[in-house]
From TrEMBL:
InterPro entries: Sugar_tfrase_PEP-CTERM_Stp1. Coiled coil: none annotated. This is Glycosyl transferase family 1. It comes from the Bacteria. PANTHER family: GLYCOSYL TRANSFERASE GROUP 1, GLYCOSYLTRANSFERASE. Keywords: Transferase. Pfam families: Glyco_trans_1_4. Signal peptide: none annotated. One of its GO terms (molecular function) is glycosyltransferase activity.
Length: 401
């Protein structure tokens, strides 16, 4: 068995946000079985010097400092997706070529569609393309709800990315998505073959209400949302919650507070801290104390692709969860979370849980049991092992990057 090259659009460690969590656990799984080399970008200076804690061979973390404006101009001039020009860098191309020249690479694992542009034009290695989510569909949704030039750019991005995704999938030995729903959507849109679902897992020993962490001191009932707060679906979700849901919940439970927990809150999210009962924490070292303190965890996302790690984390912490239908997609929850279709259903679910703490805890306990049974990393990555066992490429192939 030869070596594996792992390409990632963001350095996988520390695993402290959704994409990095998936990438880290897949990388950890692969590195336990063979020699792995990593080439990845960093967009946080702290990630340039962090330790993976894994046994890896060559590791190259390159700074990605290109501004969005520059990437946008390059996208328009080159008629390429902004998602690709934002990650286009000669140093990365040279780094990948050097690793391929120095080592007996027989498998290239590409994490996220942005990194497919670094595949060589021709390779004897097997190519596993982990799209995670169908990004073109995300931009299609953005474009349908955004006006002006920004909306035009998003619709353009959706069209160009779909062509890119289809081209890469046509030549990859396997294309992976985080859920069956995403895989089916991709097949419907592209008619691609060799498409598989490899779900996200959760480390239930770390996300455990009885694990060792410093408790978060709170008084009164607390509703919690966790996430990267400069990410548009998260920002839009909490703003909708504060405007449409929280006032009605506070009518029934006047002392309830809503904590928005996550790094890089944008200006709109920061402004929510001025609203009655709203807490905006910014970055925290550990989300578990906030989850453990929550009376209810909410995931009110109108747009959500793939599997939401924040839902799995809350389930593992044995908290009652109220999620939108979009946020619950892809999670085998078996009715152990409350799924709300609209604002009124969301309010009713939260008010009911706040009124009966014992019932809320029973729901949380059932959610933890369910997530241990269905969403452990070992169970999820067994599907990846099956994919890797299937792919064989004796004669090399052309790669569309």
């Amino acid at each position: 068995m030869g070596d594996l090259l792992f390409l990632a659009h963001r350095v996988p460690w520390p695993p402290d946000r959704g994409d990095k969590i998936r990438a880290f656990h897949i990388l950890k799984h692969l590195a336990a079985k063979r020699r792995v080399h990593v080439a990845a970008f960093a967009d946080d200076r702290a990630d340039l010097t962090g330790d993976s804690g894994l046994t890896l061979s060559e590791t190259h973390i390159l700074w990605r400092g290109k501004s969005r404006a520059v990437a946008g101009v390059q996208a328009l001039v080159s008629r390429r997706p902004l998602s690709l020009t934002a990650f286009e860098q000669r140093e990365m191309r040279e780094t990948v070529a050097g690793i391929l020249a120095r080592h007996p690479i027989d498998t290239i694992y590409v994490f996220s569609g942005q990194m497919a542009q670094y595949l060589p034009d021709r390779t004897e290695a097997s190519v596993v393309m982990d799209f995670v989510d169908m990004d073109s569909a995300k931009f299609e949704t953005y474009g349908a709800t955004t006006r002006g030039f920004a909306g035009w750019m998003m619709r353009r991005e959706a069209q160009l990315l779909l062509a890119h995704e289809a081209s890469v999938a046509q030549t990859a030995d396997a294309s992976l998505f985080v859920s069956e729903a995403e895989a089916e959507l991709f097949c419907d849109r592209t008619h691609a073959g060799r498409v598989h679902a490899v779900g996200n897992g959760i480390d239930t020993a770390v996300f455990d209400p009885h694990a060792s962490f410093k408790p978060q001191k709170v008084t009164g009932p607390l509703i919690v949302f966790t996430g990267q707060m400069d990410y548009r679906p998260n920002s839009e979700g909490v703003r909708w919650f504060v405007e449409a849901i929280l006032p009605q919940v506070r009518s029934a439970h006047p002392d309830v507070r809503f904590a928005i927990v996550g790094r890089n809150p944008d200006a709109d999210v920061r402004a929510l801290a001025r609203e009655p009962g709203v807490i905006v924490t910014g970055a925290v070292g550990d989300v578990r104390p906030w989850l453990a303190a929550a009376s209810v965890v909410v995931v009110p996302l109108k747009l959500a692709r793939g599997v939401q790690n924040k839902v799995l984390e809350a389930m593992a912490m044995a908290r009652p969860v109220v999620a939108s239908a979009a946020a619950a997609t892809g999670i085998d929850h078996g009715g152990t979370i409350s799924v709300a279709e609209d604002a009124s259903a969301t309010v009713e679910a939260i008010v009911t849980l706040l009124a009966d703490a014992a019932a809320a805890q029973r729901l949380g306990d059932a959610a933890r049991v369910r997530v241990i049974e269905r969403h452990g990393w070992a169970a999820q990555l067994a599907a990846l092992d099956a994919v890797l066992d299937e792919i064989r490429l004796p004669n090399g192939h052309e790669v569309a990057a």
